[in-house]
Each structure stands twice: as C-alpha cells, then as structure tokens.
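Fold these two proteins, one after the other.
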Amino acid sequence: MRRPVFHDGGPRVATAAARLTDDYDVRPLSGEPIGAVVLVGTGSPAQPNESTRLIGLVEGGDPGPWPLTWYAVLPVDAPAAMLRRAVGNAFADLESEADLDRLERDLAELNAIGIRLSSEANPRFLLETILSKARQITTSDAGSVYIVDHAGGDGAHLRFALAQNDSVNFPFRAATLPLTEASVAGYVALTGRIVNLADAYAPPADSPFTINSFFDQHARYRTKSMLVVPMRTPQGDTIGALQLINCKADWRGPLGDPEQVERYARPYGPRHEKLAGSLASQAAVAIHSRRLYLSIRDLFEGFVKASVTAIEARDPTTSGHSFRVAELTVSLAEVVDRCATGPYASVRFNPDEMMELRYASLLHDFGKVGVREHVLVKANKLYPADLERIRHRVELLKRELALRAARTKLDAAVARKRNYAQLAARLDAELAAAVADLDRQLERIVIANEPNMQPRDLDVEITALGSRTWEDADGLPRAVLTPEEMRTLAIPRGSLTEEERRDIQDHVVHTFDFLRRIPWTKELRHVPEIAGAHHERLDGSGYPNRARGDQIPVQSRMMAICDIYDALTATDRPYRKAVRSDEALAILDSERRAGALDSTLLDLFISARVFEHVTRSL
C-alpha cells in the first residue's frame, strides 16, 4: 500500500506534489493527517502533530525566516528527485520515531510484566500471568506453557502445564510428554532455539519435530503461525517452553473458523521474537525463583519437623504433642478468620500469618532442649534411684532390727535366763510387728510418690514418718526418710519440686532465646514472640513475664487453649491419667472463669468443635 503525501492546496505546491504521484498517494489536505508527510507553502495554516512531517516549498528568492515546525525547506520548483528524497527522509524519520515509541512501550510493558511476575506467589497464577502477558504483547490468539519436570526417577519429562485460546472453549487437560525433539516444545526446550513457523502445518523439511494436530481436529481450530521460545534462566537452565499461536496483528476478535485464520493470522516477526524471548527469560527467572523459594521452604519445614521430633525424643511421653498443638491452633485460627461477629470479627490471618502461627506452635516447646533431661522425664515425685535408696534403707533397717533381736536372744541364752522362751517369743513378735510396720510405711511412701492429689491423712502420715526414727543394732537412731525426701513426697500436686518446676517453666525462656537467634524472614518474624508467650495468662498468673490481657498476642492465647487441652487429653503421660474430652473442656472453662483464658476464643474452640480436628496418630 502506497504511503499518503498531502499538500495544502496552493497552486505552486500542488504542481510540485504532482511530481510524486508515481511513488506516493498524493492528496489535497483535508482534516488532520496521521502518519503522513504534508507539503506546505509559505503562510499555510497546516500544523504538524507527532505523526506528521511538514516540508516547506518556498519561492527561490524567499529569504525566510521559516517556521521551526517545518521538517525541511525546498524550492517550490526543486527537481523531482530532490523532492522524493526529502519526502523519503521525512517518512524514515517518522518510522524511527514510531520505532522508538514502540520500543519505549515494549520496555515499559516488559518492565511491568517483570514486576508482576516477581510479585506473584501462587504457582498457578504465575503460569497464567506468563501466558496471558505473552499473548498480549504478541497479539496471539492462543498459547501454551510447557514445563520441564525432573520429578520421578526415570529422567526429565515435559509437562503440558497450561493452555489459553480466545477462539475456542476446549477443556484443558494436563499431560506429560517425553522430553525429546519429536515435539516442537521438546525441541525448543532441549536446544534452546526459537522456532518461528509461518505455517505450523508446513515446517521446514529438515525439522526433527512434527506438529500434533489432535487439538485442531477435535476443537475445529486451525493452528497457522506459531512462535515457540525457550524459557531459560541466565545460568542456562531450561525451565520449559512458551508456545504462541496465530498472531493477529490487524484483528482483535476471535478466529471463529479456519477461513478467518487464513485471513487474519499473520506470521510472527523479529519484534515478536525479541518480545517473547525477553518475556520467556523473565518467566524462567520467576519460575526458578519460585521453585527455589519452595525448595528452601520445604527444607526449613523438614528442619523444623526434625528438630521437634529430636526434642520430643528426649521425653518420649510427650511424643506428638507439638504436632497436635500446631494442628489444633491452626484449626482454631481458621475459625477465628471466618468469624463475622464478636471481638475478633475484624481479625484475619493471611497465608503467611497462618504459616507463622504453625511454626510458632510446632516450636512452642523448643526450649525443652535446655531443660535437664532427668527433670524433663520425671514421672513421680521421687526419682527412681531415690525410691530405690529408700527401699534399700528399709531392708537395711529390717536386717538391723532382726540382728538386734537375734543378739538380745543370744545374750539371754548365754546368760541361761529362765524366761528365755517368753523373751524370745516377745522379741519375735516385736520384730514381726516392726517389719510389718516398715512394709506398710514403704507402701504408703510408694503411694505418696505418685503425682496425683493425695488424701490429707496420707500427707500427715508421711510427715510423721519423716520425723520417726528407729534404733539399729548398735542402738543408733535411723530414719526411713531424709528431710529432703519428706519435702519431696509432700508435694501437693504433680511430681516436681519448686526448683524443678522453675526449671521446667524456664523452657519458655529458652524457647524465646533460641528462636530469636534464627534470622526469620519478614513474614515469620513474630514466631519467637508467639511461641514464647503460650504459657502467659490473661490474669497475669502465667509465666515467664506475667503478661496480662492485650499484652499477650492473640495467637499465643489460641495456643494456650490448645496446649492445655492436648496436655489434659494426652494418653501417653505416665504421671497422669488422661481425662475425657468433656472433662478437659470443663477444666478449660474453670480456667476461663478464673480469668486465665480468653473467653471468646474458648467459645469458638468449643462451638466449632476444634478439639475434634486433632490427629492422635501423630
């Protein structure tokens, strides 16, 4: 199509313009020309715009000055060759400016796409963004994304990951293809070369690949022009291939039938190759970065799980507790996230915050690694060695008493006392009574050693036993219990002394200190704070900081409820019998009424039956 050249209608200018009719479409000026050259004379009202170039034709003796808006000035009777050269230069200038504008738009578009790709976290949305943007900047009717998949042990495959088509609605089905040069996508992925086909049904004769026409046959579509570019990282790793189909440079509607394809589908040009290649490189970097992020996250996930397992291995009786607490806490957070009324109606947790809460819950007892192991696994009030020492002491006392009785009887026999028989019988009876009393007291000690709540009379008896002494064979006073053992057996609840309880409670301090040393990402920066506050209580009765009310993060308040519930219902604690679910909820309710637990969160925990979500097999 010939380019238009306009003139302002002056007789002399019109005569000059007529010399260009062999090369250009010469017309009188009417309206505002676009993408054209205009020949004007002195005093012409024509004004240039961004896509117009004015060439002034002046009389030979005209000294000027001439308007600055004129692209060039020639004599009105200039030779035709000179005029054609000036007009050609003007069009070349228009093309250069148009190319520059187009380049700026392309760069701006690619920059915007790069920003969008780098910020997209969802893998599915990332692929959709890549393909839709590639089709947009190349005006493609359809396209596909193929990803090189190294999963499995039998080598790499090519995964047909996504397809889009403006003209036909055909259900997409993911598929796996061999990574070979037999397919155009495989060829591009393996070689890293761009394939640009004016007609996909007529590839070069020496091409190793063939075009699969299955889709065209079943969807009644016609794949004509095709551009396939590799998605490769700057390091040379091939991520996959981006396939674009049917460039529609002069048409924005769907290609409803093969006739429209033949009419409107255009071959892809060098500009399309550069744009698609640049976007494919950006896409490869985005996919590679996302894969790297996911692999690092999986690595950290495995490290966290391994750490929790290793810590709980120090105390097999609590195995699985941290995993169950994490499951319960995240389930409660999901309930809070859906809550539309009440104090937490405005509280919402995004995926990063959910992940942060999960890690904080998994690691809430991480500080137990700093607790002495014999304290951590202490099941009864006395350590096994301490109870065994008392048993030996009782046995020794029995033998001392038997030896003392035997010595008394021997002395009486040597002295030939007349009442020896009565004396021996009395000594045997006293010894039997003393041994029975020691056995009974040892039995009471074993009962008192249990961490359960003990009857009042047993506490009194243990106190009395601690102050009672026995005379050994040498007449020296001996006690069954030392003062320290007596104080330990007098523990009113549980198995820990005050010193040991402080040692256990310090695990929260250790948790915070250990976790804050980890260089958490911005999304997970609150993990130490959340995990370190799970034993705080709203009334200030918790530890380690005696925090109150809103000083305690809502995530820690949720974890506190879940932690208590699991500890009460756990069936693997040798020092305490597991309680039924309804009993555990009643205990939680009493803690709520005492002001220790968050009432609204506990209501949600109960009404949503979050406690049923836990997997006891963990």
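Now the second one:
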Amino acid sequence: MELLKSNVLNTENTIMTINATMMHLSSILSKSLGPYGATTIIQDKFTVNHAITKDGYTILNKLKFDNEVADTILDIVKKVSRNLVKEVGDGSTSSIIIAQKLFSELQRVQTEHDVPKKDIVDSLDALSEILVDVIKLNAIPIDDSNFRVVQNIATVSNNNDEEAGRLVHDIYKEIGANGFISLETSPTSLDSYEVTNGIELPRGYISDAFANKPDKVTCELEKPFVLMSLEALVEEDLNDLQEIIGETAKLQRPLIIISKGYDTEVRNFLTINKMQNRDALQIVAVDYALVNKHQNDSFEDLSAYVGATIYNRFEMEEPSINFGMLGICNRVEVNERTTRIIEGFKDEKRVNERIQVIEQQMEHINKKDKYVDTTEEMFQLRKRIADLNCQVATLRVGGNSEIEKETRKFLMEDAIFACQSAIRHGYISGGNLIIPRIIRKGFFGIVKRLTANKSLLRMFDNEAERESFFIEFLNCISQSFEHSYISVLQNRYDNLEHNTQIVTECIEADQILNLKTNKYEEIGETSIINSVETDIQIMKATFSIIGLLATSNQFVSVQYQKN
C-alpha cells in the first residue's frame, strides 16, 4: 500500500531542520561579532541602495531560506530578536548563537536523563529568575560620579570608535537620562548633534509668504503668542481671528497659528494680509494635519507645553476664539517642512499630567504579547515625553559615502539604546562572560536552589537524581553562553583551543581580555561593560527561543512534506 502524503513533518525531521537552521544562522551571524567582526554586504537589487553592515539584527532581517520549515523557524527567531532589540537595541546575534549551542546540548541532556521537554523549559524559567536576581544585585548605578562609563558603552557598541563613543556620552550628559536622540545622516563627512530645547512638529507654514528671513524660506518670530485649533479654521472664525491678530499687534507681539487645516477663505485672508503688510504683520500659519491618535495626543502635549487652550468648535456651545486661549513661547522657527516651538511657557501641572498618562500607556504596551512589534509605538511615546521635558537631540551621522553613513548609523543606534538602558538600569562589568561567571562562581549554590525547587522534575524519586540532572543542565547553560564569547574571539584568533583557554582563564581570574589592547583587565576596572538590561534580555531571548523550539516535535505545513 502506498504511503499517504501529509503536510506534517515528523519529529525526527523537525528537530533535524531546527538544528540545521539554527546552525546556519549562528554561522552567518557570528562573523559580525565583536570589534574584529566582519561587515556584510547586503544587496538591494530594486533600488540599488546596497548596504554594508555588521549589525546582526539588520543581517538577520535580510536572510531567507528556500525551505519553508527553515523559513518558519527563521520568522520565529526574528520575532524574539525584534523584542530584544526593542528593549535594549542590541544582542540579537549573541542570543541566536547561544540558543543554537544550547538547543543541541539540552537535547543530549534531555535524552540521557529522560526528562520531558516541558520540564526543561520550566527549569530554564527557574534559572532565569535566579540569574536575574544575581545580575541586578551586582548592578552598578550610573550617576554624576561615574557617568564616564557611558562613553565606554557607546565606544564598544560603535565597534570601538572612541570619537563616536565620546559624542554619544556628551549628548547624554547634556540631555539627561530621559533624553531622546533621533538619528539622521549628516550632509557632511563629520558627526554633529543639536539639542532642541522645545518641540519640533513635522509640518511647516501654509505659504512661503510667511517667510521673514533673507533665505526667503524661514520664518522666525520672537516671543509669539500661540493659537491652536483642533479643527480646520473656517470662514465663520474670521471675525475672531481678526480680533486676535489686532490684539497681539497692539501688544507688538507676533502670532503663530497652528491648526488642523484652513478653508480657502481663511487661507487667503491670512496669506494676502501677510503679503500686504509684510513688515508690520508678524504672523505665521502652520497646517498641522492630525490623521492618527498619536498626532492628536501630540497636539494635546503641545498645548500643555505652551500653556494654550485648544479651540474646538464642536465641543463649545458658542464657538469663539478669545485672547485667554493663547499660549506663549520664546521663539518659533518655521519653514516649509518643520516648525520648532522653542522654550514654551509651560503649564507645569498639565505637562506632568500628560507625562503620567504617557508612562501609563508605555506600561500597558509592555504587557502586550511580546511577539507584537510595538517598536514604533514605544518610539513615539518616548519622544513625546522627551519633547515635554525639552530633552530632544538630533545626531547627524557622517561618513565618506552614503553607504558608510548608513552603516555607522546602525552602530550609533545600538550605542544609543545601550547607553539609555545603562543610564536607567545600571551596568555590569565583564562583557559576554557575565552569566558564565555567575554560574561558575556560584555553581553548587545554584544547583542547590534548583534541586530544592519541588515544582521541578517531579518524575525523579530522589534528590540525587535531581541534583545530577541540574549539574549537567547548568554546565550546558554555562558552556553555551561561553560559546558566544568564544565566537567573538574566533574573529580575532582563529584557534578554538586557544580561545577556549582564554575563556577559562578569564572566569577563574575574574578578568576579561580587552581585544583592542590585547591585555587582560580586572573585572572591577575594565572598560568592557554592558547595560544590566542587555544581559538580562539576551538571556531571556535565548531561553525564549529554546522554549519555542525545544517543545516542538512536529511541523504542520501548507505544503505536502517528505518524511
């Protein structure tokens, strides 16, 4: 009888494909690790905008397989990596390399001890809690006395570019822990940054007739009043607008109008009046189209920042604009694309209330399914807080070519996330060997804690069997995390035995090898440091990949499978 065709891949072939996929990913990504990691050229045949990068997550996102099982596994790994990058900006390569080694090692231990896969995952969860406690216990907070370590973190993240590390340090020194840094490519070969003490809107004036600078594209107003309208201003609002313009003119103060659109009559009224009274009428009209919830919320933020009451005719019994609704700022800079509101006359109570609401929204997002990509949502919320706190910097990344600028931009992005995380959560010394060092130094104490956990390995009748398993289990974990640092060393010294010996010596002597100087440094004095959250999130991402793959024993495809 002919065997039936099915779309199910059996256990043996599923596990074999998982192993092959993870090994392939590890082999590709490991080449980018560390200061001696190589760059990867990424083809873009459609726009011919080819990229050169050593950023592991960027490389990962460009990978494909012609095998649909492998491609599905790749998608699972990408989702976990996306969550990791969202949290700390880096570490996806390390987590995949560790997971690949750990997956094969745990298969061996599981088979030898006949332990159910679910118990393996539960043991990883229990170990994770122990390691997080120890890592946090050893965390060193960053304050004014040791803020220089931010430069070390930024330098390492920037492939040991000391100038780039110093620049990131200087920015954070100026804008503080809650500061927000946006990245752009520089028009020159040099890096530069600018701190904006205010809020920038991605909208400009409705006509270049409002430009008042010699370049004929910029409008600058000193100490203007600010009128804000949530709905488009229409013909019925013209009388109120005339009165407001007249009152501000009597006070010899400029006026900026920020509205969700202008009908033809209002647009013509404002533009023509400005053209006829170019010097006397200090006014500019900005069209701030509100098309989504984020932009509506940002509009509310801005009103608190300048102390304005938003005009909304649909929420007023008798719609009217009056002088008491106006906000104030020290200066505005407007062109055809952007509007900068500088040094607003803050309503501190409203600003603090807005920040509290945003922080609550961030907490809610963090509770979402970890496989949902919330990167952009969190980005916008952090930017809104930074705007309200006047802590916004624009970092322009230079280079000798557009490709070089884009490559360096990826590195700068990693550095920014890593530094931000370290400033908020503290740092820990030792680079990739932190977790192996914790395990090796406290080995039997950790074994004892795991063995004493009665919810684990209930199938074993005696404690000796449980202890025997956890000894091998911990060895697997330590060796897998050591494998990540060995991969870093392999890109410098192509000698596995030599590199393995380096790892052993580093752990035993509480040292780390600084590949840049080729010298061993004491853990308490080394410049090789990580954000606490980076190590925690790498570990969690690794265990998450294992949890998703190790408990799978078959694959259901949309295509028929050969077993």
